[in-house]
């Protein structure tokens, strides 16, 4: 059976208060509320700065047992260093505590800037460095800087697999070589809907699918219509069966590598006008995945926060 996760990118937004979040809800309780309205959230604070083991552990404790986070990797690696000399920054990231999410840890998202072109050698080296299980992540974390040593951020035991998704925004990535590299490492090409601003492709390159819906008409601002959500529902249903849509927009033509099923992680990032949480809820409902959730947006919480 496929695991389908529909949620939001981030949860702390001023305009959401007294709208998605009910009046009187404390800011410290917003994650607890949001995690009972959707079944996954993409952590994006980790993109801007390293978090702490205590913070990751707190997020895990604030959310339901069956909840899943994805974690956006640091822009220091993807945007500042641009994958050059990243051994210590990569170690610092895994030492900073994402493993403390435990069973609630989903994929890592690696987003690259629009002005970064595809460099085969650089990305090949980067893909080789990515840990694909917790034991490898703990080994990577051992090379962290002195300030992070002994912080407990990599002490979570177990050796379950880790997943990685790659979001690119330059046309040079739209080539067979890049897709072949992703498939060789079981890395997901992010299906990124960006109102036509950045390249869009639906090539299936891993045993899961990672979607980021930034808005189909106006970037970060427009909501998704009933017809648009129905289209995404159909695609998700195809992906969970291991298939792709008949009209899939592909870099490499032809059917994807065979999989009996694929998990799907979908994040709405059209947050500016408070569309994201409502669109996520509507898609969950269309997929009949809302019955296990506990909170209706804009209502008083049904749980003790």
Task: Give a structural overview.
Strands 6-5-4-3-2-1-9-8-7 form a nine-stranded parallel beta sheet. Helix 5 packs across helix 7 and helix 9 packs across helix 10. The chain has one domain: Alpha-Beta Barrel (TIM Barrel), CATH 3.20.20. The C terminus is likely disordered. Helix 1 links the parallel strand 1 and strand 2. With 305 residues, the chain is α/β, with parallel strands linked by helices. The chain contains ten helices and nine strands.
Gist?
The protein is an alpha/beta fold and 305 residues long.
Q: Which SSEs are present, and which pair or pack?
A:
Elements (H helix, E strand, L loop, with lengths): L3 E6 L20 H5 L5 E4 L1 H4 L4 H10 L5 E5 L2 H6 L6 H9 L9 E7 L8 H10 L4 H8 L22 E4 L8 H9 L3 E2 L1 E3 L14 E6 L12 H15 L22 E6 L7 H11 L19
Parallel strand pairs: 1-2, 1-9, 2-3, 3-4, 4-5, 5-6, 7-8, 8-9
């Amino acid at each position: 059976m496929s695991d389908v996760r529909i949620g939001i990118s981030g949860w702390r937004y001023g305009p959401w208060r007294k709208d998605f979040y009910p009046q009187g809800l404390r800011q410290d309780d917003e994650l607890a509320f949001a995690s009972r309205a959707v079944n996954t959230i993409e952590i994006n604070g980790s993109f801007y700065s390293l978090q702490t083991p205590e913070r990751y552990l707190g997020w895990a404790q604030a959310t339901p047992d069956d909840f899943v986070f994805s974690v956006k990797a640091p822009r220091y690696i993807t945007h500042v260093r641009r994958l050059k000399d990243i051994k210590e920054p990569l170690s610092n990231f895994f030492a900073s505590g994402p493993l403390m999410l435990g069973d609630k840890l989903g994929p890592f998202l690696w987003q690259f800037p629009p002005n970064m072109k595809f460099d085969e050698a650089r990305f090949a080296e980067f893909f080789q460095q990515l840990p694909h299980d917790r034991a490898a992540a703990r080994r990577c974390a051992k090379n962290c800087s002195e300030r992070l040593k002994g912080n407990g951020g990599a002490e979570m035991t177990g050796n379950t697999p880790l997943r990685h998704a790659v979001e690119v925004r330059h046309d040079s990535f739209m080539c067979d070589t890049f897709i072949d590299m992703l498939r060789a490492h079981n890395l997901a090409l992010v299906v990124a809907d960006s109102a036509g601003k950045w390249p869009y492709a639906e090539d299936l390159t891993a045993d899961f699918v990672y979607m980021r819906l930034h808005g189909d008409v106006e970037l970060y601002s427009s909501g998704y219509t009933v017809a648009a959500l129905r289209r995404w529902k159909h695609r998700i249903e195809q992906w969970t069966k291991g298939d792709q849509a008949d009209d899939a927009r592909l870099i490499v033509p032809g059917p994807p590598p065979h999989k009996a099923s694929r998990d799907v992680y979908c994040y709405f990032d059209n947050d500016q006008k408070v569309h994201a949480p409502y669109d996520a809820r509507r898609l969950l409902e269309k997929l009949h995945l809302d019955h296990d959730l506990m909170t209706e947006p804009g209502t008083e919480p049904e749980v003790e926060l």
